[in-house]
Design a protein that fits this description.
Blueprint: H1 6-17, H2 45-48, H3 66-81, E1 94-96, H4 110-124, E2 129-131, H5 139-149, H6 172-184
Parallel strand pairs: 1-2
Helix pairs in contact: 5-6
Length: about 200
Amino acid sequence: MGFAWEREERAAIARLLAAPPFAGAIDPLVDLRFDMRDVFPPSHWAVRGEAPAFDTPDEDVYLHGRNLALLSKAAIYMARHATSDAAGPPDVTRILLGPLAGNPFPDATLEFFDTMARALSLGLATPIAIEAPYRSLHKHDVIRRGIELGVPLELTLSCMQPEGGMHCGRCSKCRERRDAFREAGVEDPTQYRRAPIR
């Protein structure tokens, strides 16, 4: 989408999928691009790479239409690559997103996902389901689930200003991450460029 953290996100997912338990168990990812820099001005924090402050509420980091754009692009890709040929790739008809409990944004509601799935299915003449399996969980619940599944949480990323594989320690997503590890009762393995504000 052209946002400042995307290069770091791609590097983080590559590191994560190269590590156990994922190494060799996940099909190669498809890298879809959808540049939104013609919608968001160069002065926007997400384009500049200067996230709002550490203690800001979620509403301050809302990206208008982000899920709308991501879902549209993913569904178009799925429809173009759908096949019922047993020799080809399997049909892909589900999109999974990761919004958590308490997400306040209009494009993260079940009503939006259901409506969007119907519109995409109709518009692409391909059955598309949109699921948000963690929508009832909080970040600390996800951390506990990750530990149960053996996910190397130190390789995961939830920062709006990452650099060199490290979290900034000063954005609201770093604050949420630090707090979630505390609430989960688990030591935070995250490498922060600067220690999060106490």
